[in-house]
Design a protein that fits this description.
Largest sheet: none
Oligomer: single chain
Radius of gyration: 20 Å
Number of strands: 0
Structural class: mainly alpha
Order of helices and strands: H
Helix content: 55-70%
Distance between the termini: 62 Å
Length: 44
């Protein structure tokens, strides 16, 4: 069995994935807010 040493793993893929997830989440929040504001403006 290979012994694990803390801090040796390359996490660059994880960082890119997490950054992409955060970017999509922020865009989703912004789009949702715009849709809600539009609906409020037209009294839907």
């Amino acid at each position: 069995m290979v012994s694990h040493r803390h801090g040796d793993m390359d996490i660059e893929d994880h960082r890119r994935t997490f950054h992409g997830f955060v970017k999509v989440a922020i865009w989703l929040c912004v789009v949702s807010a715009i849709v809600l504001l539009f609906l409020a403006a037209v009294n839907a």
